Amino acid sequence: MQRQPLITDFLNEPLQLCIEELPYPGQEWLENAPEPIQRLIHSPNATLLDSAGSLSPLGRFDILAAAPVCTLQAEGAHTRVNGTKFPAPLTTVLGQIYTKLQHNSHLPFTGGILGYLCYEYGKVLEQQISATNTDDIGLPLGEFGFYTWSFVVDHQAQQAFFCTWQCHKDQHYLSLFKSVDFRKPMVRQPFSYTSIWSSNLNQKEYLERISKIRESIRNGDVYQVNFAQRWSCQFQGNIWTEYLHLRRENTAPFSAFMNLRHHKILSFSPERFFQTSADGHVVTMPIKGTIRRHSDPTLDKKAKIALSTNSKDRAENLMIVDLLRNDLSRLASSHSVKVSKLFEVQSFPAVHHLVSTIEAQLPHNINSIDLLDKMFPGGSITGAPKIQAQKMIDQLEPHVRSIYCGSIIAIDFSGRTDSNIAIRTLVTKGEQAYVWAGGGIVWDSDGEAEYAETLSKVSKIISF
């Protein structure tokens, strides 16, 4: 596939990164976002990557990008580029427009490729997995934009920047950010849910499916399967208002708000899928192991200790660490894959998680999109062996996962990449909202406890 004209025009220009420092808008700049910024956030294909006020060292930057020069949509083995259909999968097309431009900025996204992949895009990559569950949401398998500017807020350094690779063409956006006053709180437009949240599985059905997974484990077909349920609810009003409310309750470092033409994505993910530096250093941080938090500090401390010493959770985490080590080793430089942190407890508003960190080095001829092709979807939300676990998920979950357990991905022009695992994530279509939660099922899983864990995971997002 040839490069699209708009991208070619951009790449043929003399490109130099221009960064202008702007006044720091404060920790709560989104809460106080003036009307022009809110209009920009609501513009088609606008994307906000949001550290959500996280105190975690992983949550440092907020990034806003809009007005892409080109959009891409996945349609199975085909891709629409600005509406025109091409006979190639989305990741193949992304690889063809992937452009590496040198710059020395420490900022994570100055412009580049930004978007999402649904969990079901994994079936495009692994054609031996057939689709049998129902898609009643209709979210495209993936959508990306090719962005030439970004607004970046660095909460650690208390700085803000406007970045552009087309200074003369993006002056109106720079003028917009220079002119707004973030100190004036905005009046919130109303939002409300108009029905109760209902699951696609009742508790009895959920437990029956866990029994089927345990039977497959006993037969040696799988070792672990990540299994989820989905809730849906009707709403009315401004979904941005609900996003602001939920981000106060879910301080997660890999949050995002995506304003797509027919859908909105609200993600409050605590989990990084993978991050790569401009020189190809890779970090992936799978979560496996969860325990509910307590308001009483003594009980909360005991819960952390219980999670860190729980043999089931540690075994579950180790299985996924081994899976991801294998995924990385397919592309990484020889002997570069290492586990730098094993069984680290990280704390979030509703739960504590058990997190491990795996690192590797990519050879110079391998880039982030190559890595995406080999690692997607993330092993922490499939199971092991990966393909067999995906087949079981497809058989047991009544509806497609859509954005849930997919990834939101930002690839900077420098090659620097970051991505989340889209858990604790809602998607809306029309006036219907959907949210999921699940967990890894192993042989000694207790069905009742696994069911309760799914409720804990969404307790800061929905009310039952």
Structure overview:
- The chain has 464 residues and is of the alpha+beta class.
- The protein has a single domain, classed as Anthranilate synthase (4-Layer Sandwich).
- The chain has helices at 5-12, 35-41, 90-97, 122-125, 171-179, 203-218, 239-249, 297-309, 311-329, 368-375, 386-396, 447-457; strands at 18-22, 46-50, 61-65, 70-75, 78-81, 84-86, 112-117, 142-147, 149-154, 159-164, 191-193, 198-199, 224-237, 254-259, 263-269, 272-276, 281-284, 287-292, 338-347, 351-361, 383-384, 407-412, 417-420, 425-429, 432-441.
- Strands 1, 2, 3, 9, 10, 11, 12, 13, 14, 15, 21, 24 and 25 form a 13-stranded antiparallel beta sheet that branches. Strands 4, 5, 6, 7, 8, 16, 17, 18, 19, 20, 22 and 23 form a twelve-stranded antiparallel beta sheet that branches.
- The radius of gyration is 21 Å and the shape is globular.
- The relative contact order is 0.18.
